[in-house]
Amino acid sequence: MNTRKLQDGFLNRSANGTAAVNRLLAKLPKNEYMRLLPKMKTVNLVLGQGLYEPGAAIKYIYFPNNSIISLISEVSGTAWLEVGMVGNEGMAGLPVFMGVSSSGTRALVQGSGTAMRMSSAAVRKEANQLGSLHRLLHRYSHSLLTQVAQSSVCNRFHLVNARLARWLLMTNDRLGVEKFPLTQEFLSNMLGVRREGVSKAAGTLQAAKLIRYSRGVITLLDRRGLEAKSCECYAIIKAESDVYLN
């Protein structure tokens, strides 16, 4: 790990546009961040990679930089649904902070990129010091719970078109890019709908020239249009995340 490079990236808040920074870590005072730095390792996360499984001990927690981690609930091992999304605004492995060694959800990499990784033991020790990290993780816990609750409402009551628009906007917020790989099968699992429903919803958004979907790659063309097409759930989730980070 190039400590000097990470220090520079933190202090400059990625002003050079080349280094992605986890926004939660960037909120820490400089002295606390520097104390954490030797305990963190920059790792590459690959699309589809599993980070921890339901019921299994969580060995590491992850602070995404420019990657996304989906929190997945499974039913009988045959069906699954995304119940939460973690990007550069937060941390995957929150049960560890809450004193629980395992999770009822699966953590799956949804968007490739890098993350800062810490051992669960190191997180427990740091969080118990009741410093800024402890306070930020408490606040993030509320933010993630808001997202999970609102996503549940969205998946139950809103049309697939609006849910897809919300999901794409949330992904764009966390990846910071308008173009990313995405198969219909993966997206159907994320939204909990049949592939035919995903195909129809994507076709509707594409016909409205809001996205382009070709050969497993989605490109966002009109973000404002997507925001108009999305349900109010996106604005609620984003507002909660923005408040906790500002």
Notes on the structure:
- Strand 9 (211-214) and strand 10 (217-220) form a beta hairpin.
- 37% of the residues are buried.
- This protein has 11 helices and 10 strands.
- It is globular.
- Strands 2-6-4-5 form a 4-stranded antiparallel beta sheet. Strands 1-7-3 form a 3-stranded antiparallel beta sheet.
- It folds into 2 domains: 3-131, Sandwich (Jelly Rolls); 159-230, Arc Repressor Mutant, subunit A (Orthogonal Bundle), CATH 1.10.10.
- The chain has helices at 3-11, 23-26, 30-36, 94-97, 120-127, 132-157, 160-175, 184-191, 195-207, 223-229, 232-245, and strands at residues 41-45, 50-52, 60-64, 68-75, 79-86, 106-111, 113-119, 179-181, 211-214, 217-220.
- By secondary structure, the chain is of the alpha+beta class.
- It is 47% helix and 22% strand.
- The two termini are 29 Å apart.
Blueprint of the fold:
Blueprint lengths: L2 H9 L11 H4 L3 H7 L4 E5 L4 E3 L7 E5 L3 E8 L3 E8 L7 H4 L8 E6 L1 E7 H8 L4 H26 L2 H16 L3 E3 L2 H8 L3 H13 L3 E4 L2 E4 L2 H7 L2 H14 L1
Antiparallel strand pairs: 1-7, 2-6, 3-7, 4-5, 4-6, 8-10, 9-10
Helix pairs in contact: 6-11, 7-9, 7-10, 8-9
CATH superfamily of the largest domain: Jelly Rolls
Number of domains: 2
Mean of residue pLDDT values: 88
Question: How many helices?
Answer: 11
* Structural class category: alpha+beta
CATH architecture classification of the largest domain: Sandwich
Provide a concise account of the structure shown.
The chain has 246 residues and is of the alpha+beta class. It is built from 11 helices and 10 strands.
